[in-house]
Amino acid sequence: MSFIESLFAGFAAALQGPGILIMVAGVAWGIIGGAIPGISGAVAMALALPFTFALDASTALVMLAGVWAGANYGGSIPAILVRIPGTPAAAAALLDGYELTRQGHAAKALGVSLICGTIGGLISIFVLIALVLPLGELVLHFGSPETFALALFGLTLIAGLSGPSFLKGFGSGCFGLLLTTVGFDTLTGSLRFTFGRAELMAGIDIVSAMVGLFAVSEMFHQIAHPAGPAVTVVGKAHTAFPTLAELRSVWRATFIGTIVGLIVGIMPGAGATAASFVAYNEARRWSKRPDLFGKGSMEGVAAPETANNAVQGGDLVPTLALGIPGSNSAAIMLAALVLHGIQPGPFLLAKHTHLVYTLFAGLILVNLLMVPVGIVILRLCLLALKLAPPVLVASILTLIVIGAYAGDLFLLNPLLALAFGVIGYGMRVYGFSAAATVLGMVLGVMAESELRRSLIISHGSWAIFVARPASAVLLVLTLGILLYPAVLGAISLWRSRGIVARAADRSARG
Q: Do residues 425 and 217 make contact, with C-beta atoms less than 8 angstroms apart?
């Protein structure tokens, strides 16, 4: 089947049955979740994840993609209207978006955010399709040694998700790896670390753990650090589409935002927040009117919002082609695959071609749906912003418990979600990385199974990993990434000691 035929088949699969309604629901929830300060795109996806149990894999992925895309736009609504970013990535848009609101142009700012974000999202999906398929053909030549080396290389992304402390990030990743050892051994079928509890035979439920680490921990953080009364917003806000002349005036900023979003999205660990601020700065540098930035520039809204949405396609390139998530949202997409019995990794495109093309089609559709749903859902977002924080927190915690239980009708799952919420809150307080833990859980199973399978093939010889060129290159890259911070620190220390020694020598001579 040709590419065009496969893509049309993907559109047919995405639109069959209640597919379009589920996509609309995903986009709507993403916009509302993104508009509520503190509920990021990853948290909105984590909240929706338990409700995908009853869906097939392709529909579940398309729904989560809709939540992801919707949250990218939703975060800009409170940023533009009340100068409170709904998501961290929307912080760059408020610099000019709120100034436009103060000048009476809130509707136009929301329209520029919606249209330019949709343009960036659509372009990023077409780039994703163009890049993923060749990478998928490449990894078809991978065997168990190469797959293990790739998983090990993916685990080095913990360095990018660690925050200020690499050691704490490394410990968080190791914690995620340890969690994957609970339950049945993948090769022998023997039980490990169940402590005699039948509930742990199937292992730690990754959905419950992820919901706890992201969503429940965020609610605990809001309980511990109340934000005060609900914000006051204008009840009659609406969206006004930019004219063709206005779109032409921001084309340069839209182009810069798309390029920056794609590049930063492909770079694991960077994230949409970094992409938005980089795009804002670059758009100001190349603008014909840089003096308007910070004072109500349409370009200052277009660039970060385009980059924010373009990150999605870039982020999914390593996620789908290599099974390596570079962000929290991408990790949740992989968790959805695991939830439906599909092993993420380099063979996803070969074994589940129909699923991948359905996801491609769904990604295009949810980005197109952003425009009509974004216009209709704005009023609900304003109502959500008016909710008192205690009511909002209680409602979300109730939703989490119901969702965690509804998936498998297993009482342990909501308890696990709450337990991991406590763990996630503690990790947040002491500077550990929940994202690194999730990365360890997602890649841990693949790394262990492929390592043991490789050793069985080689009759216990570790030389198989260096005898094959692809695995050897990946292992060298992994070692280089691990040693890079230590080498950089040693060079800085050596230079600082040299400067001190020269200063002491000059003072002694003087």
A: yes
pLDDT tens digits, one per residue of 438-475? 778 877 877 888 888 888 888 888 888 888 888 888 88
- In this structure, are strands 183-184 and 191-192 parallel, antiparallel, or unpaired? antiparallel
pLDDT of residue 233 exceeding 60, the answer is no
Alpha carbons 416 and 340: distance in angstroms, whole number: 19
Distance CA 246, CA 37 (A): 29
- Residue 278: which residues within 8 A CB-CB, separation 6 or more? 260, 264, 307
What lies within 8 Å, CB to CB, of 479 at 6+ separation is none
For the stretch 322-325, contacts whose Cβ atoms lie closer than 8 Å and that sit 24 or more positions apart, written own/partner, are 322/135, 322/139, 322/150, 322/154, 322/346, 323/150, 323/151, 323/154, 323/348, 323/443, 323/446, 324/150, 324/153, 324/154, 324/157, 324/268, 324/443, 325/268, 325/438, 325/439, 325/442
CB-CB contact of 359 with 62 (8 Å)? yes
Distance from the Cα of residue 91 to its chain's centroid? 17
Enumerate residues 6+ apart whose C-beta is below 8 A from 75. 34, 35, 40, 41, 85, 86, 87, 88, 89, 90, 308
Calpha distance 431→304 (Å, rounded)? 28
In sequence order, what DSSP letters do the residues of 256-268 get, joined into one string?
Answer: HHHHHHHHHHHST
Residue predicted with more confidence, 379 or 244: 244
* Helix and strand counts by DSSP (H, E) for the chain: 24, 2
Q: Distance between CA atoms of 180 and 149, rounded to whole angstroms? A: 18
C-alpha dist (Å) from residue 79 to 94, 218, 294, 479: 5, 19, 14, 42
Do residues 59 and 361 touch, judged by C-beta distance below 8 A?
no
305 vs 275: CA distance, rounded Å: 9
Calculate what percentage of the chain has a pLDDT beyond 70. 87
What distance in Å separates the CA atoms of residue 411 and residue 167, rounded to the nearest whole number? 35
Distance, CA of 230 to CA of 388 (rounded, Å): 5
Tokens for 407, please give them: 């998936």
* Cα four-point dihedral sign 299, 301, 302, 303: positive
Domain residue ranges in the chain: 3-142+206-408
CA-to-CA separations, 405 to 56, 395, 414, in angstroms, rounded: 18, 16, 6
Beta bridge partners of 183: 192
Question: pLDDT tens digits for 286-322?
Answer: 888 888 888 888 888 888 889 888 888 888 887 787 7
**Cα–Cα distance for residue pair 7/312, rounded to 1 Å:** 19
